[in-house]
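Dear colleagues,

As part of the handover before I leave the project, I'm documenting each prediction I ran so the next person doesn't have to rerun anything. This entry is a single chain, and its sequence is reproduced below.
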Amino acid sequence: MPKRARDPDNLSGVEQRATILAGKNISYTLKRTGRRRSIGLRIDDCGLTVSVPLRASEKWLHSVLQDKAHWVVEKLAGWQTSKPIETSWLDGDAISYLGELLTLRVVQSLFPTAALRRDGELWVYVTNGCTQTHIDQAVLDWYRHTALPLFKQRVAYFQALLKVAPRAVKLSQAKTQWGSCTAQGSIRLNVYLIRLPLYLIDYVVVHELAHLRELNHSAAFWRVVGSACPDYLKLRAELKAVSLS
């Protein structure tokens, strides 16, 4: 049964609780409200929130949580995986781009414009008194602006070779995945791939496109990968050595 963090006689307001779901210790926020007639579960960047009617019984709450246990654990794990990477950049820092290093130049401007690449430098234009957040967002926006067209170009090239057709190509900013492929056929590629050499980007593209034919990592899947990337074992090992953070 869930462990209470507040007086059990207090039936209103918000409580912080913990319980065992699918073998894992899960903390959650319990919200009681007279406006509800059913129990609702929500997972976001604050974790699991359970909203219940004002006088919902512990038995009912326990039953709903156990019924949704595997869903909760999977969703929480997925949310953690998809959390954005926290990165900060300062003037003079080295910025990785397609396997090369650019020097970041933070330039004061009355009329800030989009970041601009100039030879071996990336110029970010900011107003006087800007915060670190503005600089970080400007760099990330430039990464996104350059990454998506390139990724789509590489997907178009390899999808013709593999005879597949993804429904969509989108960017992600996941913490632990370079790419993913949904059962519905959408490809997601991590924006930070743009920091890596093109041949590693191509490997990730081929890997995710191959899932459109084999939604697993079976021997058949790796044969599909090998048909477009014969040296995929070497590329896979090299990619594993690269940190996403």
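The mean pLDDT is 85. The chain has two domains: 13-82, 94-240.

All the best with the project,
I.
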